[in-house]
Amino acid sequence: MVNQRDQWSSKIGFIMASAGAAIGIGAIWKFPYVAGQFGGGAFLLLFIIFTLFIGLPMLISEFIIGRATNKEAVAAYDTLAPKSPWRITGRLGVIGCFLLLSFYSVVGGWITIYTALGLTGNLISDGTNYGKVFEQIIGEPFTVLIGVFVFILMNVVVLNFGIKKGIERANNVLMPLLFIFFIILVVRAVTLEGASEGLSFFFSFNFKDFSAEGVLYALGQSFFALAVGFSCMVTYSSYLSKKESLPTSAMSVSIMNIIVSILAGMAIFPVVFAFSLEPTEGPGLLFIVLPNVFGQMAFGSVFLTLFLLLFLFATLTSSFSQFEIIISAFEKEGKRSRSKIVWILGLLTFIACIPSSLSYGVLADVSIFGKSIFDATDYLVSNILLPIGCLLIAIFISFRMDQAIVKREFQMGNQLSLKWFKLWKFLMRYIIPIIILIVFICSL
């Protein structure tokens, strides 16, 4: 059965796909506005620490579980711990990814709308209040729903082609281009008058605006940005060859994610301060800043459109991984029609997106614990379900999974000494579960 499953054609293909799963709205859209709300540089520092010492070990863990079984998330836990309650970990991932898609696809819809406006040349104009433009777009129900529909449709088309011909081929071409255009954006942003104040905000460790909630958000961001906690990477690594090094691959993905997050901050905060915007602007921060910075460039409209296209792609590569864990769970390793599952899932996702899509428009007055539907769903996924998922995975791989299999998968395909395995195992068994519990409890 393993030989019948699709596989990544190369290590680079796997790393690009995994990086694509991680480098999406988590790093480009969400990181800047959350960092802006919780102290800039202080949030960045904690995010990097959490990513390297908690997110990275968690990513390795998901890689190990997936490749050890060559099965999607639900079947992987059933295989490693048959007839036990641990199967709930994989099912939590499926449910969590569906909830995640219910607001993630809304942001994807916003990006789709902005990309269309960029292509028509109607986005940048002198004297435009881009904050008002954003409010008008997300407050118009029909426009938002069309954007969400098109975004989900693009996912469905690519996912129909499978792993190698669909997800991998798309990632290999456009992920490198995203880095190139990000660097162009950063260079322009940091040369704006007043940009130094934004860089100071982003790289100064000012903890006066920090709180226990900020620590939780930094931990949640490290999970969200690396796509760990919902076993997405269990599914992705199940398509990986036994020849590849899991720790090396996980480190590559983590470093790329940190770099993109830093680039996002360097692109956003200089513009925020240069144009006297508020770093605590929230979810709309990126959509207000991007037109401002490109409006100051020669051929700005062209560059903005190209960047939006690539940003849209980065958003798609992340959503691919979220859809894939659900598709694989229902596909039953080729026993059911992948195409039929993809189309049905696309329709159900669009329906689930409607409340979040309208939460800044006709449902703006509806609140859940003082948050909009969109923000409440985001909080539930990023700050509650993701930490719970990570805690379950940490306990599973440390105390339930056969340690001989864990060690074999960790060391396979690399020359890392035994001390690195022992360090990773110590973090997963004694440090990470305690940190997750402490931060989670303090936030309640």
Structure explained in plain terms:
- Helix content is 75%, strand content 0%.
- With 444 residues, it is mainly α.
- The protein has one domain: Amino acid/polyamine transporter I.
- Helix 3 (41-69) runs antiparallel to helix 12 (246-274) and helix 13 runs antiparallel to helix 14.
- The chain starts with 10 loop residues before the first helix and ends with a helix.
Structural class: mainly alpha
Strand content: under 5%
What is the level 1 CATH name?
A: Mainly Alpha
Overall strand count: 0
Task: Count the DSSP helices.
Answer: 18
Report the order of strands and helices. HHHHHHHHHHHHHHHHHH
Q: In CATH terms, what is the architecture?
A: Up-down Bundle
Which radius of gyration do the C-alpha atoms yield? 21 Å
Residue share in helix:
over 70%
Low-confidence runs = none
CATH topology: Amino acid/polyamine transporter I
Whole-number average pLDDT?
A: 82
Give the tally of structural domains.
1
Regarding quaternary structure, how should these chains be classified?
Answer: single chain
Shape: globular
CATH superfamily: Amino acid/polyamine transporter I
InterPro entries: Na/ntran_symport (IPR000175), SNS_sf (IPR037272), YocR/YhdH-like (IPR047218)
Organism: Mammaliicoccus sciuri (Staphylococcus sciuri)
Subcellular location: Membrane
Keywords: Membrane, Transmembrane, Transmembrane helix, Transport
